[in-house]
Model the fold of this input.
Amino acid sequence: MKYITEYRNKQRVEKLLDAIHAEATGSYHLMEVCGSHTHAIRRHGLQSLLPDQIRLLSGPGCPVCVSDQSYIDKIIALAGYKDMIIATFGDLLRVPGTEKSLQVCREEGADIRVVYSPMQALDLAKQYPGRQVIFPAIGFETTAPSSAVTLRQAKSANQNNFSLLSAHKLMPPAMQAVINEGVRLNGYICPGHVSTITGSGIYHVFPEKYNVATVIAGFEPTDILQAVLMLVRQINNRNFKTEIQYIRAVRPEGNPKAKAIMNDVFVRADDSWRGFGNLPNSGLQPGPEYAGWDAGLKFTIPTPQKTENGKCICGEILQGKKQPESCTLFASLCTPQNPVGACMVSAEGSCQAHYKYRNYETQN
Ligand code: SF4
Done:
């Protein structure tokens, strides 16, 4: 298929849509597992342009959303330690823990600072040698390499007052969990950013074992529509495989250097996911050589029994079983200004995307 250089060109969009409408003769349940895809699909009203028999679902692609509430509770507990600085991405601040959020902790006096990279957190540790600095490390394979580089630097500089509380997660176990949950699905729009690091090999199991079509897609309207067309063709022909639509950024082998450093610093571990519970070997924790920089080992962290808001259906939304509009709190008691659950807090969350662009599907 020809490489598209004008990603929002109207004629190209129309041409792709014509092909999709002509070729989509069956029933297609396509899931994206990337918050940036969720937002692009909603922002451009792509679902409304597609034939009714193509249904786009959102899955577990937002790193903040999939981080379990107990993880937030652990950071909150650590924030209460004497001489502690929590250096976090801003997205985590308003995610509700069992009793409160990091934002509330900050208002109560805890030293919680927003950083834009783990390296900035390490710089804080250098700036305050008499204090402990913890970076809550969230994200998929996309962000894990930068955490790995930071841990390496902290170790080589003997920066012992720095540590990282890892909630880094791997994409394939979540995609597998969606299938295990029995969600009706015949195609995955695979995440472009994750795939720049991992390459395409991590998805092969889905077409080979489950007859689920897989296409790695970019983030512009023509990228996503082209990926949809590629998926429709795989499904129509029952020729299930992994294809790369996002060829301007993703190579089949991924980024070997980033993978090497990630594998050197982190080891696989079981991890807890919002919506899925504990998934075996689905997370990354610092390896034994980095135990001194692993906040989970360095500090004793009491975890309160978590109680989630019974009306929030974030978990089922992340599983692809429900849409945000099915939640009784959506756009009434739960908004980006007053979020009840993680999926409304995060800029990559499904609920926020559906709220922000809630009129676009009908107007575009
Ligand atoms: S709308 Fe709010 S309460 Fe409902 S599922 Fe989404 S985040 Fe949870």
